[in-house]
Amino acid sequence: MGYPHPPHPRETVLLSQYFGDPEARSLAGWRQRGGYRALEQALAMEPTAVTTIVKDSGLRGRGGAGFPTGTKWSFMKPGDGKAHYLCCNADESEPGTFKDREIMRWTPHALVEGCAIAAYAIGAETVYIYIRGEFTEPLQRMTEAVREAYAAGLLGPGAMGGKARIDVRIHKGAGAYICGEETALMNSIEGRRGNPRIKPPFPATAGLFGMPTTINNVETLAAVPHIITQGAAWYKAMCLSSPKSPGTKLFSVCGNVRRPGNYEVVLGFPFEEFLYDLCGGPPAGRKFKAIIPGGASVPIQTMDEVRATKMDYEGFVAGGSMLGSGGVICIDDAQCMVKQIGRLARFFAHESCAQCTQCREGTSWTTKIVERIEAGQGTPDDLDTLLEIADNMTGKTICVLSDSCAVPVVSGIQKFRDEFDAHIQGHRCPFRVAAAAA
Amino acid sequence: MSVPPPGSLTQLERAAAFDPALPDAYEPLFVGERRVALDEVLTRYPTRMAALLPALWMVQEARGWVSEAAMAEVAEVLHVTPAYVKGVVTFYTMYHQRPVGRHFVQVCTTSPCNVCGAEDVVRAFLTHTGSGEIGATSPDGRFTVIEVECLGACGFATPIMIDEDVIEGVTAAQVPEIIARYP
Lengths: 438, 183
Ligand SMILES: Cc1cc2nc3c(=O)[nH]c(=O)nc-3n(C[C@H](O)[C@H](O)[C@H](O)COP(=O)(O)O)c2cc1C
Ligand code: FES
Prior knowledge:
The complex is a heterodimer. By secondary structure, chain A is α/β, with parallel strands linked by helices. Chain A has helices spanning 27-32, 37-43, 47-57, 69-74, 99-106, 108-122, 136-151, 182-189, 218-230, 232-237, 271-278, 303-306, 313-318, 337-351, 357-374, 382-392, 401-415, 417-426, 430-437, and strands spanning 85-90, 126-131, 167-172, 213-217, 248-255, 261-266, 269-270, 288-292, 301-302, 310-311, 327-332. Chain A contains 19 helices and eleven strands. In chain A, strands 6-5-11-8-9 form a five-stranded mixed β-sheet. In chain A, helix 3 packs across helix 6 (108-122), helix 15 (357-374) runs antiparallel to helix 16 and helix 15 runs parallel beside helix 17. The longest helix of chain A is centred in the last third of the chain and has 18 residues, at 357-374. The two termini of chain A are 38 Å apart. Helices cover 40% and strands 10% of the residues of chain B. Chain B has helices spanning 11-18, 32-42, 52-63, 68-78, 82-91, 111-114, 118-129, 175-180, and strands at residues 103-108, 143-148, 160-162, 165-167. Chain B is elongated and about 50 Å long. Chain B is of the alpha+beta class. In chain B, strand 3 (160-162) and strand 4 (165-167) form a beta hairpin. Bound molecules: flavin mononucleotide and FE2/S2 (inorganic) cluster.
């Protein structure tokens, strides 16, 4: 639902059905709402059969890259004598994204159940749920849900009366966006600095503690119980545009918009109608100037560019951006794009783990130059310098944080060049001048 | 204090000897109940090192920050070096490497909140707490205010954290009333 607003009739609420319903939080409440039937059903199947259902459903990773979940699970080879792990990525730090937070706050058992089913399917004995340290309430809700699940025999040795042992552990992060990157997250659980690792080896070969590991986002895992109980065909049929993008997706909407919140729609939903009908459009008297549709790491778009976009993995790419994490950032015409692009660059500079030179230096120089332009001290060749730095930051580093910083800068200069030029030629920020006059 | 020869002391004692700012009376943290709690944490991971982040959280909960002596103690308990622990502590922004005010205020100013007026909220906190500048502690020791990157609550601009509490939808005008709730 459009939490914190009542559900919009055009939403399809699956994951968000119980947002705002405190009774859904307890084990008893969750069971009354049909909880843990999926786990029971899954445990009665062969693990590979569970993976096959998820594969056939077409579910794709909701953490950003959209990798097919069932395929990822099939890389795991149980019975090879090694320990196997499942990591649940609840680091949610991509600016604009706040959906995993609400899943954990309102329906913690949905995630516990999804984790247990996934662990069973891939033969993992232990699940680590990595929750960012700032998420104090989600941490508390998840800890309580795990405690209840153990007490009821749903986790631990002989989980739910079956043969499998499934342990679920909560690991609290300590403030680092980069720990959302899968291999950085594994290092962080191991008690190391959160530096991403060079791949290969991929996690399914050598991941957490050097053992075969699968990592999935909170929303991905929370969707799994629905697929088990209602079937792959049912899930796959929920699709409004590209057949490669089935299911529902939570979009977090924020920035300059009338009704910010989390909205759950079937993938392929028309973006313009989403922005205006569901989210209420821009604040009174304003216009949308820029939309960043998938969290801070994806290309910035103008309203004209997004008008015809269909909200799925293929649709956002066709429109020139990406679905990413589903964090829709709205920026209205009263905002200075140079300032906001500088602020995004500052975010990435702050969060760079600093192991790759291109990223460490690139994010910090990009920030300095964009902020200098914003302050009215830019020079005409600054834009070329920025683009050159961005080129050096793209496709050259261990992880894509570096690329993610270049993306808003390049797309921002392309699409809002007039604003950059106005700052450079006028030696001041036109928006600040307008604000001072008002 | 003279520096003792290597090998003659535990890492903890050595760290205390090297750091003149530390009281000789550093009280170990991982004894009694806290030690039991840490031992329980250790059962959740296949390596001792993996208990490092949880152990540092325990330190911060108990002492409010993570001192060099505490890092040395954690190192000793987890069988790693103090330098290693320091390397990890400095990576993560939530561990305080120096004491902070009684209440630690974090205001998100990343773009989604920034376009909703987050900078006004920061200014209001700096003014009304008397801390004056980012990262500084107010003269009465009550507040330290920092800007933080995305708190994962962007739809509720401007979210802030005071200690463990997240408060959503904060405006500059509400700041005095919020501050009053944290004596
Ligand atoms: C810098 C960076 C930050 C990331 N942050 C997150 C995050 O906070 N949450 C998340 O689920 N995935 C994040 N990812 C993506 C993960 O690496 C990984 O692809 C994802 O968790 C896989 O789960 P999925 O297949 O279910 O989407 C991040 C990636 C990068 C490069
Ligand atoms: S940008 Fe402020 S909470 Fe995400």
